[in-house]
């Protein structure tokens, strides 16, 4: 136990499976912390791990079969009697001086202490697991935690925190974190411990593809864990997790096309929500590749309406906005083309850049998105908006799309997709995307060009005087999309859980 003004009993819980080469050294180092108890959960071991641990005065919980990752963590927590719980794995050696910082943080009043892995988001390669961890923290309004998670050892918590989270929930670290944060527990991550480079490579977990997944087993399990955490969040706070909406859904649900007569193969919808400075230049450039241009917005000046109409464009001006992205739904509903290209009056795009989107639709693709990959390769660390976009594509098993999104302009959609999904769903881009993906429509991120827009526009029209509210809508839209996905798959989004033995957890919980 680390010295302090108040005496605390420290319980150390170690998960171990075939760790005969490391476990003795790890335990001898842990004794330096003067713990009340060291609990080693040995499961599925076939080597001398058990024999070594039993000779080191530890509490041993031994199971013949493998329990699955983090099950041992929960079982150890169930048996622990200390005021502070420190969690480790039996294959990674960490010096006691580093571990003492986790204990000290609990002694100072924090409830949960995470390993500080902030440095990992400054790498050029964005691993799916890191994207998942950061996305969850953003949804939980704890962006300050970045990628730090209960899924990474070492971590520690007070007995009080364990009681509020529920020892059985430690089987799923993202769920535990979600419960803890929504319970207003104090989280911190004071100490960086490099467990990435020292984590042993396991081909079955880290390389072998999971069933019905483009990801390795470990990645698939972690994605599923995060989806399950969001399932809990939506159950707790509603289908948008309490995030602002601000749309007039009743009026939006009544959006229908004026007629079904096809007059053009191509339509262009230019939305103007707030700023109209570049509108005329956009119209003049794009009318060279389409016979129909529709300008849809609200609060347009009479002068701007007149100028736009003089170019031959149709103008739909609302006195009051029906909410973010409503203009694209209204504009599309008034279009007559089979291929509908969406942009706004502030996106700098010429006909050569727009043409490939039309060509993609005309050649059989049903949704063509902007390739926005430069926003995650040129800007390090990846920002919150692009993290959420990337996370949605990971959950949908489309990692090749990276951060491509219907929230980013420009993009093009075939009319039949909109007719099947619903015109009103265009106002909630992630939901429209999820529904389209689940119906099997073909979706690509246009690779021929990379549209150069302002960062503000690329994040999906999040601008103006109320950026905070716009960000709330953006996050709520993605939770709403994930809510739909979960309801049509399962609470893990269809991902397997890595064969965790949940029966043993249920038996102990029901005692």
From TrEMBL:
Record has Transferase as a keyword: yes
A molecular-function term among this protein's GO annotations: glycosyltransferase activity
Keyword vocabulary terms for this entry: Glycosyltransferase, Transferase
Top-rank lineage group of the source organism: Bacteria
A Pfam family assignment: Glycos_transf_2
The enzyme's E.C. designation: 2.4.-.-
Entry annotated with the keyword Disulfide bond: no
Alphabetized InterPro entries for the sequence: DPM1-like, Glyco_trans_2-like
Residues of the Glycosyltransferase 2-like domain: 11-132, 309-371
Family membership: Belongs to the glycosyltransferase 2 family.
Identification of the protein by name: Glycosyltransferase
Native species: Evansella tamaricis
């Amino acid at each position: 136990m680390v010295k302090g003004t108040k005496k605390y009993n420290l319980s150390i819980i170690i998960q171990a499976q075939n760790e005969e080469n490391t476990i003795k050294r790890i335990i001898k180092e842990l004794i330096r912390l003067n713990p009340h108890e060291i609990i080693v959960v040995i499961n599925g071991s076939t080597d001398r791990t058990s024999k070594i641990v039993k000779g080191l005065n530890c509490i041993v919980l031994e199971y013949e079969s493998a329990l699955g990752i983090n099950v041992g963590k929960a079982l150890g927590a169930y048996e622990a009697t200390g005021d502070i719980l420190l969690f480790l794995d039996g294959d990674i050696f960490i010096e006691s001086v580093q571990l003492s910082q986790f204990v000290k943080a609990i002694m100072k009043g924090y409830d949960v202490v995470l390993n500080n892995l902030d440095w990992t988001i400054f790498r050029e390669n964005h691993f799916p697991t890191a994207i998942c961890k950061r996305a969850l923290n953003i949804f939980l309004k704890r962006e300050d935690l970045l990628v730090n998670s209960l899924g990474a050892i070492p971590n520690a918590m007070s007995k009080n925190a364990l009681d509020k989270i529920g020892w059985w929930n430690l089987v799923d670290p993202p769920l535990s974190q979600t419960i803890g944060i929504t319970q207003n527990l104090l989280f911190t991550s004071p100490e960086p411990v490099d467990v990435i480079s020292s984590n042993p490579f396991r081909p079955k977990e880290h390389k072998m593809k999971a069933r019905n997944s483009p990801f390795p087993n470990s990645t698939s399990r972690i994605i599923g864990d995060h989806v399950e955490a969001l399932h809990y969040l939506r159950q707790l706070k509603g289908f948008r997790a309490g995030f602002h909406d601000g749309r007039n859904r009743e009026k939006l649900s009544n959006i229908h096309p004026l007629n079904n007569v096809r007059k053009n193969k191509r339509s262009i919808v230019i939305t103007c929500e707030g700023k109209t400075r570049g509108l005329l230049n956009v119209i003049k450039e794009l009318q060279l590749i389409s016979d129909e241009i529709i300008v849809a917005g609200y609060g347009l000046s009479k002068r701007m309406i007149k100028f736009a109409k003089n170019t031959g464009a149709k103008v739909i001006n609302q006195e009051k906005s029906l909410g973010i992205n409503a203009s694209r739904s209204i504009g599309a509903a008034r279009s007559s083309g089979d291929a509908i290209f969406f942009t706004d009056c502030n996106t700098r795009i010429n006909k050569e850049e727009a043409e490939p989107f039309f060509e993609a639709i005309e050649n059989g693709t049903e949704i063509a998105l902007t390739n926005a990959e430069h926003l995650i390769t040129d800007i390090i660390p990846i920002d919150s908006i692009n993290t959420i976009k990337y996370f949605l594509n990971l959950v949908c098993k489309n990692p090749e799309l990276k951060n491509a999104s219907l929230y980013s302009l420009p993009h093009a959609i075939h009319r039949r997709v909109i007719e099947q999904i619903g015109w009103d769903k265009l106002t909630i881009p992630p939901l429209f995307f999820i529904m389209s993906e689940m119906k099997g429509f073909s979706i690509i991120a246009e690779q021929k060009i990379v549209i150069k827009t302002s960062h503000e526009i690329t994040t999906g029209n999040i601008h103006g005087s109320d950026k905070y509210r716009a960000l709330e809508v953006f996050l709520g839209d993605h939770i709403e999309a994930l809510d739909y996905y979960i309801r049509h798959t399962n609470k893990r989004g269809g991902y397997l859980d890595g064969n965790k033995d949940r029966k043993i957890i249920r038996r102990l919980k029901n005692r």
